[in-house]
Amino acid sequence: MQLPAVPGAVGLSLAAFPVSYALNCGAALAHPVAIAMMGVLVLLILFCMAYLLGEWSQSQDPLFYVFTVFSFTSVIDLIISLEEDGYISGFMEFYLKEGEPYLRTAYGIMICYWDGIVHYVLYLAMIMAITQRKNYRTLGLYWLGSLMMSIVVFLPGNMLGKYSSEIRPSFLLNVPYILIPIWAGMRLFRQPKSLPCCTAEKVVAEQQRSLYQRPLDLGLILFLMVAATFTFFRGLVVLDCPSDSCFDYIYQYEPYLRDPVAYPKVQMLVYMFYVLPFFCLGIYGLLRPGCTWLPDWALVFAGAIAQAQFSHVGSSLHHHTPYPYRTPEEVWWVFLLTNVLYALGPHLLAYRCLHSPGFFQPAAPTGQDGIKKHQ
Q1: I need a surface site. Which of 81, 139, 218, 347 has the fewest CB within 10 A?
Q2: Which residues are 371's β-sheet partners?
Q3: Is the pLDDT confidence value at 366 over 50?
Q4: CB within 8 A of 194, min separation 6: which ones?
């Protein structure tokens, strides 16, 4: 008998509330090693329950089990953020005190909000798509970028910042968030693309148009050039560039970049060494027809930058950030406008690639009936 998987996944994820409450009541005096072992035990039980749920729902996709288990951990993260902001209490104090105290930082709270809301919705949407035998590659690539960005900033920030001395055995519970997304990403990239079919004539006509005949592409190129410049500038700021413009910016507009927790510094360096090259490649992909890789990577980087900007902006304004490092109220609008536009641009690029993919498809001989869904 096939059972609905989404209600089962929702029920399993909401079990995070009683599970965390019970563990909090029984682990007040637990040792950090014992807390880490409890985390491993909970994950093993979750994978067993997800396996049973997958068997009942007759799912053949192994990512079903990953998304089901991660939906539970997303609710745990939502509980952490709500508890740290004072909306609930009595659920995760033991874990935050003896397990991962750096989750009490503004950045830790913001990534927990993102995981508990955005990732949770993505998990349920992908579980539904799997059970309905629908393509979820687009959602999966967006999720992949978002999750990987949070990990590549969060883990180095913990090891390099002021909480480096607070790392405990529970830190190792983050290892699955490194290994599983790599494996999941390989599977997602191998799935067939769900792009609109384009005739060969339409592809040729699209690729023969000059840049001036593609105003959206021209606007995106201008955005990518400005964003690349801004990315390089903020990288110089966190590298302690001695110029007056860098000094004024870090003290007047984004003092959060000086916060000793190290997350903002790591974030700007990740932008500089990974996002900046993508912006340059994006310009190349909008100028040269047939760059089949751009739609996929535009989705990945759109998810990555959305997560990064949400966490960075939220942390800059959050009350858990010490007052000297919070963004001054008199520059809020400039700060918000700049960072919102920085996050919006990659989403426009991803939308352009997916909505009208003919320019990015390989050229085909005129007269071919059509180019089916590529790959």
Answers
A1: 218
A2: 198
A3: no
A4: 135, 137, 138, 373
